[in-house]
Amino acid sequence: MSDRIHISYFSDVLCVWAYVAQIRLDELENQFGSEIELTQHFIPIFGSTAHRIGVGWEDRGGFPGYREHVHEICREFPHVDLSPDAWTKTIPTSSAVSHHFIKAVQLLEVDGEIGSETDGASDGGTDGSADEPASGRRVSEVLALRARRSFFRDGEDISDMDRLLALAEEMALPIGAIERKLNGGEAMAALCRDVELRDEYKVEGSPTYVLNQGRQKLYGNLGYRIIEANVQEILSRPDHQASWC
Predict the structure, then answer these.
(1) Residue 4 DSSP label
(2) Which residues contact 164 (CB under 8 A, 6 or more apart)?
(3) pLDDT digits over 33-53, tens only?
(4) Structural domains for the chain
(5) Could you tell me the pTM of the whole model?
């Protein structure tokens, strides 16, 4: 078939499962390339870490208990690195600051003010796609990836706007244009739309793939072969209609 299928990917930059699953997202884009069109959306699972963890984990040890939970998860997946500062010395107040910033960059891509794809420079990671070129990947995707790694791998506070600006400067992104999208409300409107889409698709959490015009949802720590099989099934049906099997 000639037309691409659209995939909406919902995640929170502070979600450890999305951090672990990055390698699967990379493989999906590497394998299917131009056959798919993937759009990243951001949902505020950790919109308030004081409430999500400080209150939500009160009976399980609060922030120290949650930190150990995250470290236990990462020990099961050797392809990811985790800073000892994550959720101990470094406790971001909200993931929404990063989401807001990334949406500004997405809007600049749509407007054509920045290139829609990277030029092949390394994405600088160590979680399974360490030295792979980011050629063909959207600039906003690389920024989201770097923001996520900045916290989990490097122990940096990505609820700090100065840290996000530093990431943008490292990528040679136009700071003035980003600030214009932030200050003018456009980025906030785009972020609110992501939350609306979460509700429309009934997305349960992070990470979630939404395929087939919302008829298929893949949520949580799923193996890559499950994701691949669902995409392959849609691609194999020219009319994108449901099959009996």
Answers:
(1) P
(2) 97, 98, 101, 147, 158
(3) 889 999 999 999 999 999 999
(4) 5-235 (3.40.30.10)
(5) 0.89
